[in-house]
Amino acid sequence: MKENRFTERATDLDRDGRKAYRVAGENDDPSTRVIRGVEEIVGQGAEKQTWLYDSVDPDALDAIFGQKHDGTLRTNGKITFLARGCEILINADGEIVVYGPVDEDETE
């Protein structure tokens, strides 16, 4: 990933007219990474960083992908949701992919 960027274009993951981006920041909570990634792709909105609450509870999102009660890491599962026109996919292995808004100029 380029310095000072949170996303990296992942053309091999593009689908349904949406451009895919991998989100960096493996040491950050999933909610923080989602906010940074989406805002880098679509820009910061007037609603600041509270837009995520319209789609998902950030604390619950972080808890879902946090360590289990016995301290072990979660290795299975994924969650997908929509926010600010983007489709966000979070895998238990820590990978976050943001599919940008549908590009109406591209047709198949």
Features:
108 residues, alpha+beta, five-stranded antiparallel sheet, globular
What report would you give on this structure?
With 108 residues, the protein is α+β, with helices and mostly antiparallel strands. 19% of the residues lie in helices and 21% in strands. The protein has a five-stranded antiparallel sheet with strand order 1-2-5-4-3, with helices on one face. A hairpin with a 4-residue loop joins strand 4 (86-91) and strand 5 (96-99). The longest helix is centred in the middle third of the chain and has 13 residues, at 30-42. The radius of gyration is 14 Å and the shape is globular.
Give a quick summary of the entry.
This protein is α+β, with helices and mostly antiparallel strands.
Structural class: alpha+beta
Number of domains: 1
Structural shape: globular
Number of strands: 5
Strand order of the largest sheet: 1-2-5-4-3
What is the percent of helical residues?
Answer: 10-25%
**Subunit organisation of the chains:** single chain
**What's the rounded overall pLDDT mean?**
87
Return Rg in Å: 14 Å
| SSE sequence, one letter per element | EEHHEEE
Strand content: 15-25%
| Termini separation | 29 Å
Please work out how many helical segments DSSP would assign.
2
Low-confidence stretches: none
Q: Which sheet architecture does the biggest sheet show?
A: 5 strands, antiparallel
Note the topology:
Elements: E1 7-9, E2 20-23, H1 30-42, H2 58-64, E3 78-83, E4 86-91, E5 96-99
Antiparallel strand pairs: 1-2, 2-5, 3-4, 4-5
